[in-house]
Specification:
The complex is a heterodimer of chains A (391) and B (136). Chain A has 13 helices and 11 strands. With 391 residues, chain A is α/β, with parallel strands linked by helices. With 136 residues, chain B is mainly beta. Chain B has 1 helix and 8 strands, in the order αββββββββ. Chain B has one helix at 18-21; strands spanning 29-33, 39-40, 55-59, 63-72, 84-91, 94-102, 116-124, 128-135. Classes of the chains: A alpha/beta (391), B mainly beta (136). Chain A binds chain B through residues 124-125, 128-129, 133-137, 139, 141-150, 152-153, 156-158, 160-161, 164, 205-210, 257-260, 262, 264-265, and chain B through 7-12, 17, 21, 41-42, 67-78, 80, 83-84, 86-88, 96-102, 113, 130, 132. The complex binds zinc ion. Zinc ion is lined by residues 33, 35-36, 38, 47, 49-50, 52 of chain B.
Chain lengths: 391, 136
């Protein structure tokens, strides 16, 4: 019995999204959390669980975990019978944790959020400008000593192997940022909404091959929150519930390991996708919209293959020209513009958009009769997937 | 003496990784099972193939094959000239032993998947020897 089916998303909320530091990230997190609770027709007094990943440190309202459960609890005055932050499905870990907590009977309504404040303080290369470089710890010792501090490096290596094996080209890859930028024109919140041309893509500066600037998502300040509830409570709530049909996470390869997986260049998303499909009778052909992680374009391509929308090695041909993945194609993809255009809301932008589509609330970008949506997040040594249905 | 190498973020040395980083530059050391001869990397306390606890560092040939690489253009480290190559290499002894590394002593544009390479060490502070690879 796959008990995620006894849970659903009853509320969503998203703050403004900023490319330039504008509003304190913790304030944005409160905006999103309050919006999600109100959207569900609840008040903070109804929230009896919280799940957030990464946990973040309390009293830190910026950076890539800019709203800890401790601080959110205090500001919203939450009385909790469950809180958790364990890793098991990349950025969707708190979603799977919330489902587990609800079905275990710990709580009824779990507030889940992802708070990004990566622009409020400078991230990444900033840390390496010191005269004395920071020492590398844990799994990063296998990467950082080789001046490979960025996921663009790690995913780039995986992409190079996959492109080499299957003859996939950068022209094919370009369909993802180009189509998503077109989608972003219909998303008022998206950071970048101007069209992107193939020439602009091919002429853009390289970050780490095969990734140019437009293959990399856009760090931002902003939070997305959702309320996950026990399904039997949802029928009386404010919004039409969006149900969890199946979820996937886990680790067949080594947890968190970007280098050593025996089936390189496959990644953990292959495990999450397999687990997700094992928990449902639905098939890839039943999916109406896909919301797949695009920290780098190639992660989206790996997700298309891992989820079985095309065969292994065929993602380049599948996306070529962008027809299949456009809003009027067979698999509308990242209809909000994704992280490449909307901003790096770290998977929760994708989840938010999937819920809007399944509620029929996606406005100008609504995909007609969307009933089933999939979202997959992560890559490398992390992966999580959810299959959602409207009813 | 050659000039001092450029600074790298050096690993924190622990009992799980010191055999690898503090090789003295004598050769690349990978854990190997005394029971079934399988290599494991990174650290294991028990051979995942046969269950033996008899797992010890062994010096390997240092010969490997490039299985994937990226040419990094982004100046993450202001003191490090770009572009440079970050690669995954698979060891000749056992193809599922894979290391991230830099390919050195080779023009960036000549690096290719399938290229044969061999280890060369760069001595850094704290008695750490960074295993880099050059064309074999
Ligand atoms: Zn053994």
């Amino acid at each position: 019995m796959y008990r995620e089916k006894e849970t659903c998303i009853t509320g969503i909320g998203q703050s403004a999204i900023y490319r330039k530091p504008t509003v304190y990230p913790f304030t944005l997190a409160l905006d999103a959390c309050e919006a999600a609770i109100a959207d569900a027709g609840l008040t903070p007094a109804d929230i009896d669980g919280v799940a957030c990943h990464p946990l973040g440190s309390s009293m830190v309202g910026e950076g890539n975990a800019s709203a800890s459960p401790t601080d959110i609890q205090k500001s919203l005055d939450l009385k909790l019978t469950y809180y958790g932050s364990g890793e098991n499905a990349a950025q969707f870990s708190p979603v799977l944790n919330a489902i587990a907590a609800i079905t275990a009977g710990y709580c009824k309504h779990v507030l889940v959020w992802r708070a990004m404040g990566e622009r409020w303080i400078p991230m990444y290369s900033h840390g390496f400008k010191a005269a004395v470089l920071p020492r590398s710890v844990s799994w990063k010792v296998w990467l950082e000593p080789f001046w490979a501090p960025s996921a663009s490096n790690w995913v780039g290596i995986h992409a190079s192997a996959h492109m080499h094996k299957y003859g996939i080209t950068r022209e094919q890859m370009s369909a993802i940022p180009i189509v998503q930028r077109r989608n972003a024109a219909r998303n008022p919140k998206a950071i970048y909404r101007e069209p992107l041309t193939l020439d602009q893509y091919m002429d853009a500066r390289m970050v780490s091959t095969p990734f140019c600037l437009y293959d990399c998502d856009v760090p931002c300040d902003g939070t997305t929150a959702v309320v996950i509830s026990r399904a039997d409570l949802a029928k009386d709530m404010r919004q039409k519930p969006v149900f969890f049909e199946a979820v996937g996470g886990g680790a067949q390869g080594n947890i968190g390991d970007w280098v050593s997986r025996p089936d390189f260049p496959d990644m953990m998303m292959h495990d999450a996708a397999k687990m997700m499909w094992s928990r449902t009778d639905l098939k890839p052909k039943d999916v109406d919209t896909a919301h797949l992680y695009d920290g780098f374009t190639y992660l989206t391509m790996f997700w298309l293959e891992a989820l079985g929308f095309c065969k292994e090695g065929e993602s380049g041909a599948f996306i070529e020209g962008g027809h299949r993945i456009s809003p009027d194609g067979e698999l509308p993809l990242n209809t909000n513009g994704g992280q490449l255009s909307e901003g790096r809301m770290h998977a929760f932008g994708h989840l938010h958009e999937a819920v809007l589509q399944l509620r029929g609330q996606a406005g100008d970008r609504q995909i007609k009769d969307a009933k089933v949506s999939v979202s997959g997040v992560g890559g490398g040594g992390l992966g999580g997937a959810v299959l959602l249905r409207a009813d | 003496m050659s000039e001092a190498p450029l600074m790298r973020p050096l690993p924190v040395i622990t009992d799980m990784n010191s055999y690898f980083w503090r090789s003295g530059g004598e050769g690349l050391r990978i854990l190997r099972c005394g029971g079934c001869d399988r290599y494991s990397h990174p650290y294991v306390g028990r051979c995942p193939s046969c269950g033996s606890r008899d797992v010890k560092p062994q010096t390997v040939s240092g010969r490997a094959t490039v299985v994937g690489f990226t040419v990094n253009h982004q100046p993450w480290f202001p003191h490090v000239p770009v572009p440079y190559v970050i690669a995954y290499v698979e060891l000749e002894e056992q193809s599922d032993i894979r290391l991230a590394t830099n390919i050195v002593n080779c023009p960036v544009e000549d690096v290719a998947i399938g290229m044969k390479v061999k280890v060369v060490f760069e001595k850094q502070d704290d008695d750490i020897y960074i295993p880099l690879f050059e064309p074999a």
